[in-house]
Write a structure and sequence with these properties.
The protein is of the alpha/beta class and 402 residues long. The chain has 4 domains: 164 residues, Molybdenum Cofactor Biosythetic Enzyme, Chain A (3-Layer(aba) Sandwich); 44 residues, Molybdopterin biosynthesis moea protein, domain 2, CATH 3.90.105; 84 residues, Beta Complex (Molybdopterin biosynthesis moeA protein, domain 3); 73 residues, MoeA, C-terminal, domain IV (Beta-clip). It has 8 helices and 26 strands. Strands 7-4-6-5-9-8 form a 6-stranded mixed beta sheet, with no helix packed on it. A hairpin with a 5-residue loop joins strand 23 and strand 24. Helix 3 runs parallel beside helix 6 and helix 4 crosses helix 5. It is elongated, with a radius of gyration of 31 Å.
C-alpha cells in the first residue's frame, strides 16, 4: 500500500479544524495572543492638532519676514492646552504634544528664537511641515487597523491601546497535552539505568507548541502497559490536541494505537512518506485530535514542526500557509539522490554571494541524534525521488522554528 504523502497527511490533520472560541483579554495581558476579529479604532489619533516640537505657536504670516517680534500671550504644554486664540502679532510658548492654539498655523522652533516670557524675537529659520501634527495624522475613529488572525506583539499592543481598546478579542489558547511513552525513559535529571535513556523529546515538542501559541500540559511518562497508558491518556481529557511521543509503530511493545483505539480513537493514518517520521499517527478521540509522534528526537521534532505547529495555527485562526512558508536557497555542497519519502534534512544556512542563502545538510542525519538537530537552523526539503543535486542547485528550506 502506498504511503500517504506529507501534503495529504497535513490536509487530514487540518480537515474541519475550527478556531477556538473568542475571549476578551486585557490589553496588558494580551502579548502573544491572536486577534480573533478585525479591530477598529475607537478614537482619532492625534485627537487634536498638536505641536511636533518645542517652540512658539505663531501665525505663519507673522514670521514671513525675519526678524519678527511677537507678543507672548501664554503657554501650552502636553495636558495643559492654551484656551485663548492667537491674533496677529501674537505667539504662545508651546511644548511637544500640546494642542496648537486656535489661530496658529505654524511652530517656530525654540533654537531660532529668543524669548523673555513677554516677547519673542524670531531671528531665522523656516517653518518645517513636521512642526505641526494634524488631527488624525495617525488614524481616524472607525478605521480598521489590525486584522483578525494577527499575533499580538509589542507593536500591535501599542497600537491597540492607542486605538482606545482596554481589552482585545482573542482566540482561546489551544490546550495541548504532551505524553511521553516507554519503559526505557527516565525523567530529566535522573540517572538512567541499564537500557534506559533520559526523556527529552517532550521538551522540544512542548516548546514548539508554546511558541506557536498553545497552552501546554506535560502528562509525564506512561509505561508500556495498557493500564498505565490508558490512565495517562485519561488525564488529557479536555485537550484540543493530545500528542503522544513514542510507541506509534506496530511492534509488540508499541501499545499507543491499540490503547487509543480501545478508548474510541478514530484512526486517520499511521504511516506517511516522510523522513524522518514515517511512523506518524493521527486520529480523533472524543473532542481531541491525537497526534502520535515517533520516539526518535529528530523525528518527533520534525513531525511536530510540520503537523503540530500548523494545527495550532489553524486553531488560533492564523494563516497556516505562513507557518510552512519555505525560503529559496542554494546548495553549498552536493547531496545524493533521495528515495521515495520526502526528506527533511537538518541543515545550516549562511548568506550567499548572490543574495540567496547557502545551505548545507549536516553530516549525520540519523533521526536518533540530538546534536545535529540543535545545530540546525533549517530543514532542507528533498522531494521524493529527487535526483542528485550539485552544489549551487536551487532548493527549498523551511526555518527550523515558525
Amino acid at each position: 500500500m502506498a504511503l500517504l504523502s506529507v501534503e495529504d497527511a497535513l490536509a487530514r490533520v487540518l480537515d474541519a479544524v475550527e478556531p477556538t472560541e473568542v475571549e476578551p483579554v486585557a490589553v496588558e495581558r494580551a502579548r502573544g495572543r491572536v486577534l480573533a476579529e478585525p479591530l477598529k479604532a475607537l478614537l482619532t489619533q492625534p485627537p487634536f492638532t498638536a505641536a511636533g516640537m518645542d517652540g512658539y505657536a505663531v501665525r505663519a504670516a507673522d514670521v514671513a519676514a525675519l526678524p519678527a517680534t511677537l507678543n507672548v500671550i501664554g503657554t501650552a504644554a502636553a495636558g495643559h492646552p492654551f484656551s485663548g486664540r492667537i491674533t496677529p502679532g501674537e505667539a504662545v510658548r508651546i511644548f511637544t504634544g500640546a494642542p496648537v492654539p486656535e489661530g496658529a498655523d505654524a511652530i517656530v522652533i525654540q533654537e531660532n528664537a529668543d524669548g523673555d516670557g513677554r516677547r519673542v524675537v524670531v531671528r531665522e529659520g523656516v517653518v518645517e511641515p513636521e512642526s505641526i501634527r494634524p488631527r488624525g495624522m495617525d488614524f481616524h475613529e472607525g478605521e480598521t487597523l489590525l486584522e483578525g488572525g494577527r499575533r499580538l506583539g509589542p507593536r500591535e499592543l501599542c497600537l491597540g491601546a492607542g486605538m482606545g481598546h482596554g481589552t482585545l478579542p482573542v482566540h482561546r489558547r489551544p490546550r495541548v497535552a504532551v505524553l511521553s511513552t516507554g519503559d526505557e525513559l527516565v525523567p530529566p535529571g535522573a540517572r538512567p539505568g541499564a537500557g534506559q535513556v533520559v526523556a527529552s523529546n517532550h521538551l522540544a515538542v512542548a516548546g514548539l507548541a508554546e511558541a506557536a501559541g498553545a497552552e501546554v500540559s506535560l502528562l509525564g511518562i506512561a509505561r508500556d502497559t495498557r493500564e498505565d497508558l490508558a490512565r495517562h491518556v485519561g488525564e488529557a481529557a479536555g485537550a484540543d490536541v493530545l500528542v503522544t511521543i513514542g510507541g506509534a509503530s506496530v511492534g509488540e511493545h508499541d501499545l499507543v494505537a491499540p490503547v487509543l483505539k480501545a478508548g474510541g480513537l478514530a484512526l486517520s493514518f499511521w504511516k506517511i512518506a516522510m523522513r524522518p517520521g514515517k511512523p506518524l499517527m493521527f486520529g480523533r478521540l472524543d473532542g481531541s485530535r491525537v497526534l502520535g509522534l515517533p520516539g526518535n528526537p529528530a523525528a518527533s521534532f520534525v513531525c511536530a514542526r510540520l503537523f503540530l505547529v500548523p494545527l495550532i495555527w489553524r486553531l488560533l485562526g492564523r494563516p497556516v500557509e505562513a507557518s510552512l512558508a519555505t525560503v529559496e536557497a542554494r546548495l553549498g555542497a552536493a547531496v545524493e539522490a533521495n528515495g521515495l519519502r520526502q526528506h527533511y534534512m537538518r541543515a545550516v544556512s549562511k548568506p550567499g554571494a548572490d543574495g540567496l542563502l547557502q545551505v548545507a545538510p549536516l553530516p549525520f542525519q540519523h533521526s536518533s541524534l540530538m546534536t545535529p538537530l540543535a545545530q540546525a537552523d533549517c530543514l532542507l526539503i528533498r522531494p521524493p525521488h529527487a535526483p542528485r543535486a550539485a552544489a549551487g542547485t536551487a532548493v527549498s528550506i523551511l526555518p527550523i522554528e515558525a
